[in-house]
């Protein structure tokens, strides 16, 4: 889509009366019983949480796991809305879920990571939400594909939904990493750049997979300018029927929020603005130098490319490439620069050289 999406600000969502960051959504991974849900909600509400989340239908990786209580949990949520005055939200994965959720007065729904990865599912959900005026949040797809994520927003938008928000829950990985799902922060950062006014929530519970990392991930999300957090909270996490390790009690959630440092995007006084502006001028000069160096390097790459073509020499020169990489990594170590950074930069430069010389060979 060429025109920017006209997304409504969260101040028009009718969900959060407190509009400061982080906007908070919390609640158990799954609604398990009326008692568990009500007790969790009561404690959350007493701690100032306004929007309750609870999974009713749980897409599980393997069969024979707890797959959610299904529609019987919806009146439990509605009762909380009535008794405690909380806003209620749940995950929907198909048109039946949407219909049932709306019947019980859901204030917000979200689309899960596995559904976002499936355009048919997103299209079905979008069509079933036509004419409905509640916010719809979309989790990133399980695979790190930003176009698929953006495509889901476009499908919803084309069905007339303008109260849209994103949930970053990390990306599946085959390798074992520190977290259950790789954050790949560059993807939500790019999403923010591509859809500027899209409210962005972080789901540290699903990224971490373990409660001990929720604080650090929440802090990072705040430092990257996320608008809100969606965090799994259960009165008795260790006995939770799903995702027990990553859930925290409402009081633990309170502690985490109390320790968050909320920093502002723009400096709050003119002196700070001036200091940053001066430093940014220096950065601009250095960026210009980098651009000049890259341009000159590419000119030489083209010369070598032409020579290789005329003299039947292969593009890839493994020995030379090995020497370059060894030398710059050695420089990186000497200068206390991250070797990972230098390796990534030079691999990108080398790849660009190969691409350019390939074009020359084919001219
Ligand atoms: O040295 C060459 O032959 C080049 O074409 C330059 C260059 C480079 O980018 O530095 C590019 C491709 C080769 O694999 C090795 C090095």
Automatic annotation (TrEMBL):
Domain of life, per the record?
Answer: Bacteria
InterPro entries tied to this protein: Aldolase_TIM, Chorismate_II_sf, Class-I_DAHP_synthase, CM_dom_sf, CM_II_prokaryot, DAHP1/KDSA
Swiss-Prot/TrEMBL GO biological process terms = chorismate metabolic process
Domain Chorismate mutase intervals: 270-361
Q: Which UniProt keywords apply?
A: Isomerase, Transferase
Q: What class of enzyme is it?
A: isomerase
Named from the GO MF annotations, one term is: transferase activity
So what EC number does this one have? 5.4.99.5
User: Which Pfam families does UniProt cross-reference here?
Assistant: CM_2 (PF01817), DAHP_synth_1 (PF00793)
Q: Which PANTHER family match?
A: PHOSPHO-2-DEHYDRO-3-DEOXYHEPTONATE ALDOLASE, PROTEIN AROA(G)
This protein is called chorismate mutase
What species is given as this protein's source? Butyricimonas faecihominis
The upper taxonomy is: Bacteria, Pseudomonadati, Bacteroidota, Bacteroidia, Bacteroidales
